[in-house]
Amino acid sequence: MDNKKVLEKIKKCLALAQSDNPNEAAAAMRQAQALMAKYNIDNDAVELSDVNEFAAKVGSTKKQPAYVHGLCNVICRVMGVEAYFRVESGWGRAASSVCFLGVGSRPELAGYAYEVLARQLKKDRTAYLKTLKRYKPANKSRKADLFAEAWVFAVMSKITEFAISDKEKGLVVRFKEQNMKDLKEGKFSKNHKSTSRDCDAQQAGYSKGREAALHRATGSDKRAALSCRALSKGADFLPHRARSLCSPVVAPESPLI
To answer: Which DSSP letter does residue 133 get?
Structure first.
């Protein structure tokens, strides 16, 4: 029996040990203790087994643009998880992914939510980029990034943060201390500086971002974690200067096999 199955069996026994039936509770506790002794598993390992990770691909570059970090920050806040970037490199190529870390199924739901929103953002950014016919390539990319930053800001402005309990926060801290000691501070591209000439890019991105609706999913709703729909057709406020979307996400690097 692999370690994961053993831990699941132990947790089921511990849950049964809370039964109102004293005989059933005692039998379940004895079975849990027997399994822990047999497989050399302590209480700490059982508790930390509730912490999970889920990785979603973000691209082939080591340094992600600010709007990608901003989108990850949105997902973390609404799903009640943490995130870090993992970079695998070798043979002249790199593969990056964002790993969501949290309790229960939330990391997996966060990964699905990120994938849905990231696809929509990429689609909208590409469509906007095609409208910039009279600009030089570098300026096209800059304005498209401003569009994307405003898109993310629009999504961020209307979310409700998930309240994480102190117990869950403690579990994640302990998990990182035991399993993620090699994490280091990552770098990301700063938000582009904007001028009055960039208001069109920002307003277009903000308006499109208002169409993305983020809904928390539960259990079997994994791939329905998000839906995109028109939320408002009224006038929206957009700050003239692009705001910082999030702080750097820690990013360990490992060889690509």
So the answer is: T
How confident is the model over 24-34, as pLDDT tens digits? 889 988 998 89
What would the pLDDT profile of 152-165 be if each residue is shown by its tens digit?
Answer: 999 988 787 888 88
Q: Which two tokens stand for residue 177?
A: 């201390």
> 121-129: long-range contacts at Cβ-Cβ below 8 A with a sequence spacing of 24 or more?
121/67, 121/71, 121/148, 121/151, 121/152, 121/212, 124/148, 124/151, 124/205, 124/208, 125/151, 128/201, 128/204, 128/205, 128/208
Q: Is 100 exposed, middle or buried (0-12, 13-18, 19+ CB in 10 A)?
A: buried
153 exposure class (CB count in 10 Å sphere: 0-12, 13-18, 19+): buried
SS3 255: strand
Average pLDDT over residues 130-156: 90
pTM, 2 dp? 0.75
The DSSP 8-state label assigned to residue 88 in this structure reads E
* Relative orientation angle of helices 199-209 and 106-129, to the nearest 10 degrees: 140
- Select from 44, 34, 37 the least CA-distant residue to 13: 34
Angle at 67 between CA 160 and CA 239, to 5 degrees: 70
